[in-house]
Amino acid sequence: MPQHISMHVTAFLLYLTSVSSWLRPKWGLTASILAVAYNYSLALGFVLPSGIVALLAVMLLAFLCGQMPDGLRGMALHGVFLMLAIMLFAHVVPGFHNPLLLGPVTFTPDAYPFRMYLNIDKSAVGLAILLFYRPLDRGTSVARSLIVGSGGAGLAIILLLPAAVLWHAVQWAPKLPEGISVWALNNFLSVALTEEALFRGVVQASLARWLRTRAWGTGMAIGIAALAFGFAHYAAGPLMVLFASLAGLAYGLAYNRGGLLASIWAHFGFNLFHILLFTYPLLMHP
């Protein structure tokens, strides 16, 4: 089978696992799809045996954190889980060869070339949280989550894009980009899902629990998680850290009001607005 077809089959299996993971009574089906996805990735060489060990470790840690969410031992477990999760986010854990899904493509002549990978290592963090982290707030209803998430996306647009235009980071550039369908699937079911599961579903929610006796606990949790989300984008430069931190505030408010689906929808909605109507990802200056 040609590699590009194998890559898209792998992506489909991981996306299907993401969707299935919301159906909590269907845990066995989700686990089966996940096992097929990673065994297929192993057969193709996208994941090596050492990578499988890391995947099993992050899932075990997510389960243990869910069983012991509070107390000193719970905090220590969360710390170990977060360290491994950040290493997987940063692609420093050996045993992964993430395939290129899209690019390099330049959406507008003045933009940086864009590459999108199927981040098998990073996606495992989000799937581990969805499957095994018991305290995760999934929201009360899909309709409420989507309404709240739309509001969160609107707030992120107001907070970020005027400032980004003012600082000449982006400019008005409406378009229908090449590969938008692949971009949208990956951004929603891998990028937004994984980042929101970690930074809102674990970091923000855990801090809110641990600080619940303080009047400012919820606001502090949202702010710290937003800063952590911002610094996770340090590789793109200090301006991106600032922009991501501001976006994190909007996504954190969405999570607080509508659960994980709301923050995922807010995150994806902002990214979709950005790619369709402005320079993406950023202006390339001489």
Could you please describe the fold and organization of this structure?
The protein is globular, with a radius of gyration of 18 Å. The protein has 286 residues and is mainly α. The chain has a two-stranded antiparallel ribbon. It has one domain (3-277). The mean pLDDT is 93. The chain has nine helices and two strands. The protein starts with a helix and ends in a 9-residue tail after the last helix. Helices cover 69% and strands 3% of the residues.
Query: N-to-C SSE series?
Result: HHHHEEHHHHH
Characterize the overall form. Answer: globular
Placed side by side, the strands forming the largest sheet appear as: 1-2
Low-confidence stretches: none
Helix content: 55-70%
Largest sheet: 2 strands, antiparallel
Count of domain modules: 1
| Secondary structure: number of strands | 2
Tell me the strand percentage band.
under 5%
For the record, give the distance between the C-alpha atoms at the N and C termini, rounded to a whole number.
42 Å
* Count of DSSP-assigned helices: 9
Mean pLDDT: 93
Q: What is the radius of gyration computed over CA atoms, rounded to a whole number of angstroms?
A: 18 Å
Structure class: mainly alpha
